[in-house]
Specification:
The chain has about 110 residues and is mostly helical. The chain has one domain.
Length: about 110
């Protein structure tokens, strides 16, 4: 059995750079983990710019919406819980197709 959820399985078939992969390339660049998490979310948003927009019903559009929601939530509350859910591969929206949820385990904690 896979160790799920994780971003790569949650967002198949998108090519996602996991937080772990991303931070290894930036060792020592950020003051603390909170700063690096917000920078990672920003980078993931920028990676989707030009490919999709918030009106899109594609998988890229769904990811952009969830990343934007997590970033806005952080900036309004200084709470990283939604950013951390994204990093763990959890989805922020509800009512996803049951086959998708079963395969990705995207609601697991």
């Amino acid at each position: 059995m896979n160790n799920l959820p994780n971003q790569k399985n949650t967002w198949k078939p998108l090519k996602i750079t996991s937080y772990e992969e991303w931070i290894k390339k930036r060792s020592g660049k950020y003051i603390n983990q909170d700063t690096s998490i917000v920078a990672y979310i920003d980078q993931q948003i920028h990676a989707l710019e030009g490919e999709t927009d918030l009106k899109s019903i594609t998988l890229q559009g769904a990811r952009l919406k969830e990343l934007t929601y997590a970033k806005l939530h952080y900036h309004l509350t200084y709470d990283l819980s939604l950013c951390n859910k994204i990093i763990r591969g959890q989805r922020l929206c509800t009512q996803l197709h049951e086959d998708y949820v079963k395969e990705s385990k995207c609601y697991s904690s």
